[in-house]
Amino acid sequence: MSLLLQHTPGVIEAGCDEAGRGCLAGPVVAAAVILPNNFENALLNDSKQLSEKNRNELRSVIEKEALAWKVAFVDHEEIDEINILKASFMAMHRAIDGLKTKPESLLIDGNRFIPYEGINHHCIIKGDGKYLSIAAASILAKTHRDQFMEELHEKFPHYGWFKNKGYPTRQHKTAIAEIGPSPYHRKSFNWKIRQTKLKLK
């Protein structure tokens, strides 16, 4: 599927996406990105469809060429307090708060969103594979979160975060079962190795 440039031509749009909702540890991270109207890049796509090398290359391009961008974190403690869905929306709101240019419209990846005061939004299922600004936001959210978890891995190497980034792989769950959770694990999630689905608060 080829990515479209804008949802509404002539309107300043910010694409928004998050990374880390399904993880057992670490923050949920969101990004908001406003791209110039003439932005083009043949590599740009949903972050999940790209190699780590291409994501990191695109991160540099997006951060240099975007009209405005911001990445925001909601940590594991906040996730436990308000639940992961609300935390994802909070991270998006924080990212929008930090944009140096105020958007006139928001393009949200997914089917739900808590409205941001004063700005209309459009929820787009699989939007990171349809619109450039959402794809760009998905790349920034993913790469910034991955970097955070890789740095955290140096302090807590047992969980394999350099590879799984906090997602519930068998290795990760086995490590929790053997040595217990780290201070960065989400207490509202079920870590048991026999569990196949995450249990949310």
TrEMBL record:
Gene Ontology BP terms: DNA replication, removal of RNA primer; mismatch repair
Binding-site positions, a divalent metal cation: D17, E18, D109
Catalytic activity: Endonucleolytic cleavage to 5'-phosphomonoester
Family matches, as Gene3D superfamilies: Ribonuclease H-like superfamily/Ribonuclease H
UniProt keyword annotations, A-Z: Cytoplasm, Endonuclease, Hydrolase, Manganese, Metal-binding, Nuclease
InterPro entries on file: RNase_HII, RNase_HII/HIII, RNase_HII/HIII_dom, RNaseH-like_sf, RNaseH_sf
CDD domains the record matches: RNase_HII_bacteria_HII_like
EC numbers on record: 3.1.26.4
Identification of the protein by name: Ribonuclease HII
Gene this protein is translated from: rnhB
